UniProtKB/TrEMBL annotation:
<keyword id="KW-0560">Oxidoreductase</keyword>
<dbReference type="InterPro" id="IPR016204">
    <property type="entry name" value="HDH"/>
</dbReference>
<dbReference type="InterPro" id="IPR002912">
    <property type="entry name" value="ACT_dom"/>
</dbReference>
<feature type="binding site">
    <location>
        <position position="191"/>
    </location>
    <ligand>
        <name>L-homoserine</name>
    </ligand>
</feature>
<keyword id="KW-0915">Sodium</keyword>
<keyword id="KW-0028">Amino-acid biosynthesis</keyword>
<dbReference type="Pfam" id="PF03447">
    <property type="entry name" value="NAD_binding_3"/>
</dbReference>
<keyword id="KW-0791">Threonine biosynthesis</keyword>
<feature type="binding site">
    <location>
        <begin position="13"/>
        <end position="20"/>
    </location>
    <ligand>
        <name>NADP(+)</name>
    </ligand>
</feature>
<dbReference type="InterPro" id="IPR019811">
    <property type="entry name" value="HDH_CS"/>
</dbReference>
<comment type="function">
    <text>Catalyzes the conversion of L-aspartate-beta-semialdehyde (L-Asa) to L-homoserine (L-Hse), the third step in the biosynthesis of threonine and methionine from aspartate.</text>
</comment>
<comment type="similarity">
    <text>Belongs to the homoserine dehydrogenase family.</text>
</comment>
<dbReference type="GO" id="GO:0004412">
    <property type="term" value="F:homoserine dehydrogenase activity"/>
</dbReference>
<dbReference type="Pfam" id="PF00742">
    <property type="entry name" value="Homoserine_dh"/>
</dbReference>
<comment type="pathway">
    <text>Amino-acid biosynthesis; L-threonine biosynthesis; L-threonine from L-aspartate: step 3/5.</text>
</comment>
<dbReference type="InterPro" id="IPR001342">
    <property type="entry name" value="HDH_cat"/>
</dbReference>
<dbReference type="GO" id="GO:0009086">
    <property type="term" value="P:methionine biosynthetic process"/>
</dbReference>
Length: 434
């Protein structure tokens, strides 16, 4: 380390669970971080809304004026306040003045990433955001850098710990969604308002970031088809188990190639059945895991803690070290790569598979009528199982791959058949040959 090197001055916006860990680690290991970066790192201020709630932070560092802190004499702004505003304005101010940024703000990146990248490019500043997706798991940097020379075809993963805890608990205990959500709240895995997690908003923002990096195309959260887990029932979990599958909320980003060679990007978040032999099926509790399929590298899996103060702080500090190194050697980090500009494929045209459970009348010809409806809609059946008699009669169908709109239309028409008493459940199937 160059002892004469001026310190890297860091402004910290937000000091919640993650921010507190970032501040603690910088304070406890100053020599270690200085050795890694080539210069000391100095936190010059911590912006919070209520200073009295942060007695652990040296009082001379605390401020309620985040804008003044960002506009002051700092080199790097670390943003951990979340949400769109004032985070967007603060980071644009920093980037436009040539100050590098480290952020964990998935919602902001998913909605306004292109604006932030443009500001960084114009001033030559860095923007790093490893902690925005999958907490401590080193995932975004491999997509941005390690796999930059490869062609990624698919990214599929569990990127929300709350929903994974709920679905894993439903699978292991047989409990329903509502009681398992309550348990997740008691254990601290679910927020008081769990909407962002259980309705898929959190995972959709992360999917937008993953798709943008993997396919060199600007993808926003609004481009991502989104379904949550509140409609998943113990019956769905049990049905998956009979087929040796597990139910997971998946973020799926893929490059789709038509027969004529035309490429597009599909990005979606929804519950799906996957084989228990698939690596993602064994990811339990609040852990995250992402499965990447690339042409040269083949199949890769990234697994670890997807949230929490210390794990997320690890990713933030990794970015901070990278930014500081760049400042020391007058280098630059990776820039936005959106050169492919592939179109987004609507969910209705996205190829997928369905698992359909039907409550049917116990009479001859039921199977043939249902099968005829699939045939009329050009949807091929992979597996069919009829069981029970009388009021307990049921029919389970797993399709081959077809356009999602064709599958939905088929289910709607089957529901109108006189021999079908009820469409009990419909769930997509992923992670196995079609």
């Amino acid at each position: 380390m160059n002892q004469d090197r001026e310190p890297i001055r860091v402004a910290l916006l937000g000091c919640g669970t993650v921010g507190t860990e970032v501040l603690r680690l910088l304070h406890d290991q100053p020599d270690e971080f200085a050795a890694r970066t080539g210069a000391p790192m100095l936190v010059t201020g911590v912006a919070v809304r209520r200073p009295h709630k942060h007695p652990e932070v040296p009082q001379h560092l605390l401020t309620t004026d985040a804008h003044a802190l960002v506009e002051g004499d700092v080199d790097v702004v670390v943003e951990l306040i979340g949400g769109i505003e004032p985070a967007r304005s603060l980071l644009l101010t920093a980037l436009r003045s040539g100050k590098s940024v480290v952020t964990a703000n998935k919602a902001l990146l998913a909605e306004h990433g292109s604006e932030l990248y443009a500001a960084a490019d114009a001033s030559g500043a860095d923007i790093y955001f490893e902690a925005a997706v999958a907490g401590a798991i080193p995932l975004l940097r491999p997509l941005r850098e390690s796999l930059a020379g490869d062609r990624i075809n698919r990214v599929m993963g569990i990127v929300n710990g709350t929903t994974n805890f709920i679905l894993s608990a439903m699978d292991s205990t047989g409990a329903g969604y509502a009681e398992t959500l309550d348990e997740a709240g008691r254990l601290g895995y679910a927020e008081a308002d769990p909407t962002a997690d259980v309705d898929g908003f959190d995972a959709a923002a992360k999917a937008a970031i993953l798709a943008s990096l993997a396919f060199h195309t600007r993808v926003t959260a609004s481009d991502v088809h989104r379904e949550g887990i509140s409609a998943v029932t113990p019956g769905d979990i049990a049905a998956a188990r009979t087929l040796d599958r597990a139910v997971k909320l998946l973020a799926i980003c893929e490059r789709v190639v038509d027969e004529d060679g035309t490429e597009s990007v599909s990005a979606r978040v929804h519950p799906a059945m996957i084989p228990r032999s698939h690596p993602l099926a064994g990811v339990g509790d609040a852990f995250n895991a992402v499965f990447v399929e690339a042409e040269a590298a083949g199949q890769l899996m990234f697994y670890g803690q997807g949230a929490g103060g210390a794990p997320t702080a690890s990713a933030v500090l990794g970015d901070l070290v990278a930014v500081a190194r760049n400042l020391v050697v007058a280098g630059k980090g990776p820039r936005e790569s959106a050169h492919a500009q592939l179109p987004m494929r609507p969910m209705g045209k996205t190829p997928t598979r369905y698992h359909i459970s039907l409550d049917v009348a116990d009479k001859p010809g039921v199977l043939s009528q249902v099968a005829a409806m699939f045939n009329d809609n050009d949807v091929s059946i992979s597996v069919v199982r009829q069981q029970g008699r009388g009021a307990e009669a049921s029919l389970v169908v797993v399709t081959h791959t077809a356009a999602d709109a064709a599958l939905k239309s088929t289910v709607d028409k089957i529901a109108q058949l006189p021999v079908v008493r009820e469409v009990v459940s419909v769930m997509r199937v992923e992670g196995e040959p079609s």
